[in-house]
Structure formats: structure tokens, C-alpha cells
């Protein structure tokens, strides 16, 4: 055996050759992919499910064995911060679902965007956000990346002229969510990608609310697709995780930095995520059905003012949503007509099935009044700027029976 002691070990730890024992099934249906994609056909001991690996480190039988690994002759695990068998399986499944070459998992959605931005940006770089993006991601850039000399611009969501006007030679990335939270605004991905390409800046879409069932940003040429897997992908309100999907070339340095930052998942957490993903298509079918039926019910109810749901013709970006989404998801925002914040909170409190909690995308329906949840510590001026009304309610449909959820909302509105 020849040894090369100057080998770049970081490169080895992150290299991901295609693995024939992990078929993508990309030519087959979504549920077939959810169940089988990315998994090794033959798992340890013949187990049908992926065993949970708890190891923080992985042993070598001999120095010769170790040398085969460091010289790149053998792909295997080495240390938990660089990956695990559970992680490889779920990352390959997520890449298949997003139609991407690769996906990297993190310990939360926020850890994922932080990992990506820390890899791609340096002092003097600029980044442009549509302003309805998840507020913690904008906060990370404007408050924290600013300390390292990165400049963040925020422009009104969907205003492509303003986005293009904010791009200059230092701009590295443009960012949008689609649909957005809580206003459910869809962003035209063809225009978004065209601006990125024309200006030679990379593009990132937070597709957490859409999920790979309803939207496939990679097919439009988006560079990075970001998911909070805490939501629909995990789907059971029992885990936190996040992912970034994209090309192997773009993600390779991101994976390397994650090995340094260490925001990885335990084998237990990954097992839950993998198990949740098996039923992803089935759950999304019910989330979409519940979302549309409840949005239509709310729009027709006399106590309801405005309803924000991408599947309703009344939504200002409905045409974009209808053109690029397969379904419209389970999140609905509505206002209680002529109600103050207290009357609105009485509707929330009267719901008997949905639970009062932040988050979305799980099997349990959740209800919240943004004023007293995520936006409680904002000033009235900030709430006005973010479009948060005192009488607004956000409803995340679970997978309960449609008629039960509608009957419960009806009694809550009429209580
Ligand atoms: C649209 C969206 N993106 C990203 C995140 C961040 O994900 P996580 O909570 O998993 O860090 C959230 C969390 O609420 C979200 O709603």
C-alpha cells in the first residue's frame, strides 16, 4: 500500500461518491420514493428499517484499515460530527424528494441556513431578501452577519424591480420563501431564477411551507432549497431538523463547514425523521385537502374578514401558486371580522381540536394568534410593517378528519 501523508483529510471526510446500494427511484411515484429512496437495499443484519446508530466515533480494525480510509480507498464513517449511517440514509432520501443531487441535514432549520450563509458569505458581501422571509433568518443576517461585515437588503416580497435594484457587484445571494408565512404569498420562481442568472448571484428558496410535494424549486433552476424539516417533513411535532438541497458542487464546501460547526442530528432524531418521511405523501394529501376545504369554509363564514390561502382565487398571488404548486398546503391565516385582539383570542381559546402552539406541518392541528405568539414583543409599528393584524389567526391543519376540523372552527367562531 502507498501512503500519502499530505492528503487533505477534510476532503475525504466530506466526499460523497454515488452509492449504487442507495437507489433514488426517481422515475417512480412519490410514496415509493418516500419509502425506499436513499436507503441501502440490504441493511445491517438484514433489518428492514435503518438501525439507529448511537456511536459518536467509529473504530478501525488496524492502522492499515485507517490508512485505506484516509487515502480515500474506502468510504466509511469516522467521527459523528462528519456524518452517520442514519444521516446518509435520510440525506439521500431528501435529495431524491427535492430532485437534487445532494442534501445536507442540520439539527434545525435555522442551523441549516446559518451553516449555508456562514459557508458562502464573507465580509463585504451583500445579500437580498424578500421581506416576508422567516423572520429569524432575516434577523440572523441583519443583526449577526452584520457584525462580520455582511450587508443585508430587504425588499417587498414579489417586487422583482426592487430586488434587482438592490443587487450590485458584492451581492452573492438572493433569498425568498414561497409561499410565505403567515401571508402565504407565492413568489414567481421563473422570474426569481432569471434575476439570479442575469446578475450571476446564487438563489435560495425556503420551501418549508410548500414541501417537495407541492413545489420543486430545483426544477426551476434554484440553487439552494431550504426546509425546516421540523415541519411537514418530520410531520409529527416530535423533532427539530433542517436541510439544504442543491448540487454536489455547491454543497461540498457547506458540508465541510458543517463538519466544523457540528450542528448534526442524533441517530434517534434521524430515525424519527426517516420514519416520518415514509408517510410524507399520504400526510400531504390530507394537509392539502384540509387546507383547501377549511380556507373555503372560512371565506364563506360571516364572522371571518380576510382569508390568506394560496389555493383561494382571492389571494393576490393565487395565479402564481396555481401555476407552480401541485397543492396549496395546510397553513391558513384569517382575520376575525371587526374583532379586537381579545375577541380574537376567544375564538382561539374556543377551538377544541387544534392546540395553541407555534409551528406547523404536524399531524396535530395548531392554532395561534400571531399578535400574542411570534410578534408579541414587536412594537405596533413593527407589526404594521410585518402586516400582522390584532385580529389575525393562523391555523395549521393537521391530518384530522376535514369535517371535524370545520365543525370545530365553526363552533369556535360562533361561540
Ligand atoms: C418558514 C420557516 N422557515 C424556517 C424555519 C426555521 O426552522 P426551525 O424552527 O426548524 O429552526 C421556520 C420555523 O418556524 C419556518 O416557519
Would you summarize the structure shown here?
With 415 residues, this protein is α/β, with parallel strands linked by helices. It has 16 helices and 12 strands.
How does this structure look, described?
With 415 residues, this protein is α/β, with parallel strands linked by helices. It folds into 2 domains: 9-278, Type I PLP-dependent aspartate aminotransferase-like (Major domain) (Aspartate Aminotransferase, domain 2, 3-Layer(aba) Sandwich); 280-414, Aspartate Aminotransferase, domain 1, CATH 3.90.1150. Helices cover 39% and strands 14% of the residues. The chain has 16 helices and 12 strands. A 7-stranded mixed β-sheet has the order 1-7-6-5-4-2-3, with helices on both faces. Helix 6 links the parallel strand 2 and strand 3 (151-155). Helix 4 (85-98) packs parallel to helix 11 (267-278) and helix 14 packs across helix 16 (402-414). The radius of gyration is 22 Å and the shape is globular. The N and C termini lie far apart (78 Å). Residues 1-12 have low confidence and may be disordered. The site of pyridoxal-5'-phosphate has 13 residues, from helix 5.
Amino acid at each position: 500500500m502507498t501512503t500519502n501523508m499530505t492528503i487533505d483529510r477534510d476532503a475525504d471526510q466530506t466526499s460523497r461518491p454515488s452509492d449504487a446500494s442507495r437507489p433514488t427511484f426517481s422515475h417512480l411515484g412519490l410514496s415509493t420514493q418516500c419509502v425506499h429512496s436513499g436507503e441501502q437495499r440490504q441493511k445491517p443484519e438484514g433489518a428492514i428499517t435503518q438501525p439507529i446508530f448511537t456511536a459518536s466515533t467509529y473504530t478501525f480494525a488496524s492502522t492499515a484499515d485507517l490508512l485505506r480510509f484516509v487515502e480515500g480507498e474506502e468510504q466509511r464513517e469516522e467521527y459523528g460530527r462528519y456524518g452517520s449511517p442514519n444521516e446518509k440514509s435520510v440525506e439521500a432520501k431528501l435529495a431524491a424528494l427535492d430532485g437534487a443531487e445532494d442534501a445536507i441535514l442540520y439539527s434545525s432549520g435555522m442551523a441549516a441556513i446559518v451553516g449555508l450563509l456562514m459557508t458562502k458569505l464573507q465580509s463585504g458581501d451583500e445579500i437580498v431578501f424578500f421581506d416576508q422571509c422567516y423572520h429569524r433568518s432575516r434577523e440572523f443576517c441583519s443583526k449577526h452577519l452584520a457584525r462580520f461585515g455582511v450587508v443585508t437588503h430587504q425588499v417587498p416580497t414579489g417586487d422583482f424591480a426592487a430586488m434587482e435594484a438592490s443587487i450590485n457587484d458584492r451581492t452573492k445571494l438572493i433569498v425568498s420563501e414561497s409561499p410565505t408565512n403567515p401571508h402565504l404569498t407565492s413568489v414567481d420562481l421563473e422570474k426569481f431564477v432569471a434575476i439570479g442568472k442575469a446578475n450571476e448571484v446564487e438563489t435560495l428558496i425556503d420551501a418549508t411551507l410548500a414541501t417537495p410535494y407541492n413545489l420543486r424549486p430545483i426544477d426551476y433552476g434554484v440553487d439552494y432549497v431550504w426546509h425546516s424539516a421540523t415541519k411537514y417533513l418530520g410531520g409529527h411535532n416530535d423533532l427539530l431538523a433542517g436541510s439544504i438541497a442543491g448540487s454536489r458542487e455547491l454543497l461540498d464546501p457547506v458540508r465541510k463547514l458543517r463538519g466544523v460547526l457540528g450542528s448534526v442530528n442524533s441517530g434517534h432524531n434521524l430515525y424519527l425523521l426517516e420514519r416520518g418521511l415514509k408517510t410524507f405523501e399520504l400526510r400531504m394529501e390530507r394537509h392539502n385537502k384540509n387546507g383547501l376545504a377549511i380556507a373555503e369554509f372560512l371565506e364563506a363564514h360571516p364572522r371571518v374578514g380576510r382569508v390568506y390561502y394560496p389555493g383561494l382565487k382571492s389571494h393576490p398571488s393565487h395565479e402564481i401558486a396555481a401555476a407552480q404548486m401541485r397543492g396549496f398546503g395546510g397553513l391558513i391565516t384569517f382575520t376575525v371580522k371587526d374583532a379586537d385582539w381579545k375577541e380574537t383570542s376567544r375564538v382561539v381559546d374556543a377551538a377544541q381540536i387544534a392546540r395553541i402552539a407555534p409551528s406547523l406541518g404536524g399531524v396535530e392541528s395548531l392554532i395561534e394568534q400571531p399578535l400574542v405568539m411570534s410578534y408579541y414583543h414587536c412594537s405596533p409599528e413593527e407589526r404594521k410593517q410585518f402586516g400582522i393584524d390584532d385580529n389575525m389567526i393562523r391555523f395549521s391543519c393537521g391530518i384530522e378528519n376535514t369535517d371535524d376540523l370545520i365543525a370545530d372552527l365553526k363552533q369556535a367562531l360562533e361561540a
